């Protein structure tokens, strides 16, 4: 299992490095802006980036598997089929944790440069990002094992577009309602943890059904 | 028995494999031949448990495929496919390190010797290897964990005769101790003329023949006889024939039986020519006589 996890992370090493570099750039811009007392823009960037990080890395790993027929290769080796699926879900968890740590560290760094402390809103947002990341990562991986890379990617891009565009569109046509909704979301302390718990549940369900789907679908694909 | 496959059936929308039986004892090489699209790769995927048969059963080393012994069985098999689906971006060294982790019997000494023999640069990316070197690398990986059974799915197709000869030498050496076996699928029958002990021929998903190579060579021969003699012999004695003037060149299905009936009928021996595996395959598959 460790060999499989290492393989995936090693394959995605370039994009991991790119993400770290971009985070570094964000940190510098953030520090400059923070010195001027404005962190809103850089925080927005970081939150969007928090969503995109996991998607980009998972997508790259799945792309490599598709491009190099990696799953077929692994099935010719003495590896249990369930291990091939489990490996991907563990990698997903590692990446989500990694992106969470990066976001948290970045937010802490920003606030070190500012007089005010970390707000509840920011902590709630981080928890929310973690939950949402778990949900769409689980859905992407499950779809990959059900319908293959190409279709899974299409569906997930669709979901991401909806996730990003819906708040923007609602914000344009009903700005006041949107603000109220957001305030309610972050002022109600149990909502983000609930999303996180739902995320964990969905992740576990997708993990389990993916093992069954893979055993069935891989026979067809071969 | 290394391989015992009985009554294998697999149905796809455009192709079906029907009632394939394969028996491969220890210490032998079986040539698995047939034209492109005849079902060789499907059969090998069934044997490798990459697809499940609709009917029939498979035993490797006396064990059936199931979740409990899947890893144990695969650790005893060296598999080289027609394509080698490696991660092209990774180096040869990285790939061998990765693969070696799954085989407790992995022997670095064997691997290093093969890599030196094949002259493959370990620092190169797998994607930069030539087709021949890619096959050699796959073969080195498959041999380095000291498998009991090698399953090769057309590894030599598209390779030049020099590389093919090298590979055949290594395979001959592999079964040298008499305890290991090879199932070698190919449509280049010249390779099997040299090394195979058994031959299994399939076409359109149907098993046409499966027995010792010498038995096939002895049974299936080309005979030149008269038209009138040909007409008196039951058609079941022949796999294929062609007429040239008053003469018929026919391929016998059982030369011994044919010879005795021919001698009784004419009082003389038939004019007979040996056939190689490619001629035999052509007679069986296309009904043509060379």
Could you walk me through the main structural features you see in this protein, from its secondary elements to its overall organization?
The complex is a heterodimer of chains A (222) and B (290). Chain A has one domain (2-220). Helices cover 89% and strands 0% of the residues of chain A. Chain A has 9 helices and no strands. The mean pLDDT of chain A is 82. Chain B has 2 domains: 3-213, P-loop containing nucleotide triphosphate hydrolases (Rossmann fold, 3-Layer(aba) Sandwich); 221-274, no CATH class. Chain B starts with a strand and ends with a helix. The longest helix of chain B is centred in the middle third of the chain and has 14 residues, at 131-144. In chain B, helix 4 (108-118) packs antiparallel against helix 5. In chain B, the strands form 3 sheets. Chain B has a 6-stranded mixed β-sheet with strand order 6-7-8-3-9-10, sandwiched between helices. Chain B has a 4-stranded antiparallel β-sheet with strand order 2-1-4-5, covered by helices on one side. In chain B, a hairpin with a 4-residue loop joins strand 1 and strand 2. Helix content of chain B is 36%, strand content 28%. Chain A binds chain B through residues 3, 7, 10-11, 64, 68-70, 72-73, 75-80, 218-219, 222, and chain B through 45, 48, 50-52, 67, 70-75, 79, 81, 83, 85-90, 94, 98-99, 101-103.
């Amino acid at each position: 299992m460790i060999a499989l996890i290492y393989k995936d992370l090693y394959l995605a090493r370039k994009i991991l490095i790119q993400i770290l570099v971009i985070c570094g750039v964000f940190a510098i811009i953030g520090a400059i802006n923070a010195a001027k007392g404005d962190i809103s823009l850089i925080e927005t960037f970081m939150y969007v980036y928090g969503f995109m990080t996991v998607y980009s890395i998972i997508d790259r790993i799945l792309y490599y598997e598709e491009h190099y027929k990696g799953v077929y290769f692994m099935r010719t080796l003495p590896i249990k089929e369930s291990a091939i699926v489990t490996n991907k879900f563990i990698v997903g968890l590692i990446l989500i944790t990694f992106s969470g740590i990066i976001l948290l560290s970045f937010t802490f760094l920003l606030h070190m440069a500012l007089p005010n402390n970390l707000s509840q809103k920011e902590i709630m947002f981080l928890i929310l990002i973690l939950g949402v990341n778990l949900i769409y990562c689980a859905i992407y991986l499950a779809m990959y094992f059900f319908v293959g890379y190409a279709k899974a990617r299409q569906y997930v891009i669709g979901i991401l577009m909806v996730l990003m565009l819906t708040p923007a569109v609602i914000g344009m046509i009903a700005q006041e309602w949107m603000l109220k909704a957001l305030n309610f979301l972050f002022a109600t302390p149990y909502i983000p943890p609930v999303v996180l718990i739902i995320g964990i549940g969905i992740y576990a369900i997708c993990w389990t059904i993916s093992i069954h789907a893979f055993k069935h679908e891989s026979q067809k694909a071969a | 028995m290394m391989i015992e496959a009985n009554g294998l059936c697999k149905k796809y929308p455009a192709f079906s494999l029907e009632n394939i039986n394969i028996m491969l004892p220890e210490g032998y090489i079986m040539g698995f031949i047939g034209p492109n699209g005849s079902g060789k790769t499907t059969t090998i995927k069934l044997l490798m448990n990459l697809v499940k048969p609709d009917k029939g059963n498979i035993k490797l080393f006396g064990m059936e495929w199931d979740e409990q012994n899947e890893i144990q069985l695969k650790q005893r098999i060296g598999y080289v496919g027609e394509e080698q689906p490696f991660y092209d971006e990774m180096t040869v060294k990285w790939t061998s390190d990765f693969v070696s982790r799954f085989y407790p019997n992995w022997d670095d000494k064997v691997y290093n010797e093969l890599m030196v023999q094949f002259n493959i640069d370990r620092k190169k990316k797998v994607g930069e290897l030539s087709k021949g070197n890619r096959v050699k690398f796959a073969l080195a990986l498959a041999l380095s964990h000291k498998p009991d059974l090698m399953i090769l799915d057309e590894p030599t197709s598209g390779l030049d005769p020099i590389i093919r000869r090298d590979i055949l030498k290594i395979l001959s050496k592999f079964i040298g101790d008499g305890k290991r076996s090879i199932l070698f699928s190919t449509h280049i029958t010249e390779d099997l003329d040299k090394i195979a002990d058994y031959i299994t021929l399939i076409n359109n998903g149907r098993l046409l023949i499966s027995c010792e190579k010498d038995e096939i060579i002895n049974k299936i021969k080309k005979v030149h006889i008269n038209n009138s003699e040909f007409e008196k012999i039951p058609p079941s004695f022949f796999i294929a024939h062609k007429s040239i003037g008053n003469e018929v060149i026919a391929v016998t299905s059982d030369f011994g039986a044919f010879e005795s009936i021919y001698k009784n009928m004419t009082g003389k021996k038939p004019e007979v020519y040996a056939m190689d595996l490619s001629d035999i395959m052509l007679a069986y598959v296309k009904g043509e006589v060379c």
